[in-house]
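Entry 12.
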Amino acid sequence: MKNVTQVQLKNGMKVMLKEIRTAPIISSWIWYKVGSRDEPTGKTGISHWTEHMMFKGTKKFPGSMLDKAISREGGRWNASTSRDSTRYYETMPAAKIDLALRLESDRMTKSIFDAKEVASERTVIISEREGSENEPMFLLGEAVQHASFRVHPYHHEIIGDMADLHTITRDDLYNHYRSYYVPNNATLSLAGDFDTKSMLKRIKELFEPIPKGNIPPRLARPEPERKGELQLTVEGPGETAFTQVAYPFPNALDADYFALQVLESLLNGASGLSYKTCRLYRALVDKGHAVDISGWSESTIDPFLYRFTIVHRPDKKPEEALSVLDDEIKRIQNEPVPAAEIQRAVKQARAVFAYGSENITNQAFWMGYTAMFSDYTWYTTYLNKLAKVTPQDVQRVAQKYFQPSKRVVGTYIPQGKGA
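Predicted 3D structure (tokens):
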């Protein structure tokens, strides 16, 4: 499987190793299957906050020395929390990767969660949330997400609701950490300049002594099907109006996922590549109905959303641009897309995928990323599955998913600078 070695340690931890000898660099990622999807009401934002606390250190690796130790060795590191996972990475000169492995094995079980650090981080995260609340697109996106999910925990933003950021305790955070940061809920993915046999031996020395944990709790709250379009408005500061249109979108394992990726490339361009030649840009921006149009999906464990965002012109009514968007969607639903246009969209999507897979850090990323919702074959067969998409597939998924009766339409109405 494209020279990837996959092993499960005795404690249930998954290890994925890919030798790439192009440069003396190794990128190490550790993935925990926990994100905003696992947060009940009252604890929203707890996964992201826990991620912050993991940088505060252990007895062996105090927080004050971590940054210096990594950068002194010529490495870089970071972390992020998504809807479905939390991940930490270090990309280091190959000879120095042992520091990253020792750090991650230590903080899997020995992070301190000092009460004073929790208090100071509360201030940081509340401030981060307050900053986002000054952004029209955050306010609109959150309102649309809330309306799209009444039941499923994808309802809330990854940063969490302000009410919970004020009330989550040190013990809440520590219990969340101990519940989900267990080896049987983790995947370690490494790519770069190493020998697989000796690397695996070292990983076993560091990680296999960590005891297996209980199976972490999972929320199972499937979202019921929407019965009828929901429209909402958000008012706030600024001079620009926006509209966001959100349709239910299948998860990354759904058979329709790849046809929808080609449809996305047709309508919006593949992740912004050459999007000015795509259907929606030509229909809305080139013809003067809007300032900009974009659309995106996410690869998630449970069904999430496909969202279009329109940036409106000050001299036009938002309804006008929305009507043009609807006409373009209807056109794809009613008329098969020419095969040559499908081929161009597939080519764009393939180019973006290839570009995002190039460097060693990204190679290690993709191994762990796909492990959160599937396995590595999802990645290795991605391009072949895109190439098999037909004009009929694209028309069918456009008809199936882009139904007005299932969508949420949110419009941001600016109240001027002083609002």
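Annotation: The mean pLDDT is 94. The CA atoms of residues 259 and 389 lie 6 Å apart.
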